[in-house]
Amino acid sequence: MSPTATHTSPSEASIAVLAAADGLFYARGIAGVGMAEVRDASGVSLRRLYGLYPSKRELVAAWLNDRHVRWMQWFTDAVARLSADGVPPLLATFDAIAEWVHSPGYRGCAFLNAIAETTEIDDTHRAIVAAHKRDLVAHLVSLAAADPSSPAWLPDAIGVLIDGAIVQTAVFGSDAPIAAARAAAAQLMNGHS
């Protein structure tokens, strides 16, 4: 055990554990990572790790909640930045996703990846993933509100296009699905009036 781990406050230890879990779970999947690996990557003792998260399932839930907060913050900030130059905010969502897919270690949506690991997740995890996707659509609703003539279904449709583009980009290793989804979103936005 390192001296740092011994003297780490609970919040510092939790931050270290969640950062390690994020890197490991996102890169290798939930099933591919054991608690000892999270311990090693975080520098937090196994005893401390289990004191914070008594089971891997509890750690996965905490990781999903933490990732949700961080991803939504990044996403809303990126969309605001990209739409500041006059790009319609709903289309800027695709520009933000295009930036994300070019970041090192991109492996698609952590939430969709997690939901696919049916033996590793439970109803608590599914509820966190569903809440993440609902919050994404709620943000899209707020972006669509700028155009009062937008149909009520538009944010849901954009959400489906975003998720489909994220999945196909990860599968094909190309950002072409994002361009296709953005073009489809533009057609939906132009065709509703």
What are its keywords?
193 residues, elongated, Arc Repressor Mutant, subunit A, Tetracycline Repressor, domain 2, 74% helix, mainly alpha, 10 helices
Main beta-sheet annotation = none
Tell me what portion of residues adopts beta-strand conformation: under 5%
Q: How many helical stretches? A: 10
What count of domains describes the coordinates? 2
Uncertain spans: 1-7
Q: Quick one: how many beta strands? A: 0
Termini distance? 63 Å
CATH architecture of the largest domain: Orthogonal Bundle
As for the CATH topology of the largest domain, it is: Tetracycline Repressor, domain 2
Class from secondary-structure proportions: mainly alpha
Query: Helix fraction?
Result: over 70%
Name the CATH superfamily classification of the largest domain. Tetracycline Repressor, domain 2
Helix/strand order: HHHHHHHHHH
Mean pLDDT: 92
Shape: elongated
CATH class of the largest domain: Mainly Alpha
* C-alpha-based Rg, rounded: 19 Å
